[in-house]
Amino acid sequence: MSIRGGLRSLERQASALPDGAQLFRLRPDGRVLRADRAGARELGPQDPDSGLLRFIDEQQYAHYFIGDAATSPERPSNATYKLGLVAPHTAFTPHAHGGEHLVLALGPASCGLYDAHRRRVVAVDLAPGTLIRIPELMPHSFGNRSDNRLAILAANTGYGIDHEDYAITAEVAQQRGEHELAAALREVTSRQRVGTVTVRERLAHRLHRIAAALEDSR
Questions:
Q1: Nearest residue to 137 via CA among 154, 106, 118, 159
Q2: Is 0.70 topped by the overall pTM?
Q3: What is the distance between the alpha carbons of residues 169 and 171, in angstroms, rounded to a whole number?
Q4: pLDDT tens by residue, 64-105
Q5: Cβ–Cβ < 8 Å for 89, 150
Q6: Alpha helices (H) along 97-198
Q7: How many independent structural domains does the chain possess?
Q8: Cα–Cα distance measured from residue 178 to residue 218, given in angstroms and rounded to the nearest whole number
Q9: SS3 105
Q10: CATH code of 68's domain
């Protein structure tokens, strides 16, 4: 399943699109292709025109579909919907958000959620296509279990949260005097694990790639 073949296929589809319409193909290897009438290209850090922003940590990126990085208290209704690209076998610094959010994992992922009632961290392995809803201010971790880039789709409520303040880490919580939140985030950090991919998941991934290659060859 070559990038070149995928780009050709997407370019053919996009050639008849109306002005302003775009196509995105989220591949099983975590790479993202986009196309419009002007042509097709891969959306990634190698493309200076991709509009990618640093997403919480180095090596992690975000591309805004709805909303933008300049949310502010003056625009509190500006909820965002974004594409995230997570590097292989990495995890975000454990954090919390000021508003609830939903994350759709398009590859094998891991998530650790802090249960404040039972004061423990619950680890959840996410299969491709799993959507998780995380309530506001719930400390959590999120990682990529595979050796490919992981694409995620993340939607969050507005609240005027700027991109740079999107994630509240233990350090930030401590600076703001939120000591209980900081302690919970440190607990999530101590329990954080990226995880691995099972043999069954590897087989399913190979079959998914074969199916995607057949689609690209149409």
A1: 159
A2: yes
A3: 5
A4: 888 777 665 555 555 778 999 999 999 999 999 878 889 999
A5: no
A6: 170-175, 179-191
A7: 1
A8: 55
A9: strand
A10: 2.60.120.10
CA distances from 209 to 8, 55, 164 (A): 17, 27, 35
Query: Three-state DSSP class for 173?
Result: helix
Sign of the torsion formed by the C-alpha atoms of 95, 125, 85 and 158: negative
Residue 18 is assigned to a structural domain of this protein: no
Residue 58, SS3 per DSSP: strand
Measured between alpha carbons, how far is 48 from 46 in angstroms, rounded to an integer?
6
DSSP classification of residue 144 = E
Q: Note the residue count of the chain.
A: 218
**CB proximity list for 102: less than 8 A, separation 6 or greater:** 131, 132, 133, 134, 154, 155, 156
Domain of 67 in residue numbering reads as 52-216
**DSSP classification of residue 111:** E
Q: Give exposure, 132-144, as e/b (b: 16+ Cβ within 10 Å).
A: bebeebbbbbbbb
3-14 and 199-216 helices, crossing angle to 10°: 50
Residue 41 falls within a domain, yes or no?
no
pLDDT tens for residues 194-211? 989 999 999 999 998 888
In a domain, 187, yes or no: yes
AA identity, residue 72 = S
SS3 45: coil
Report yes or no: 57 and 86 within 8 Å, Cβ to Cβ: no
- Please state, in angstroms and rounded to a whole number, the distance separating the CA atoms of residues 201 and 211: 15
* Residue 39 included in any domain: no
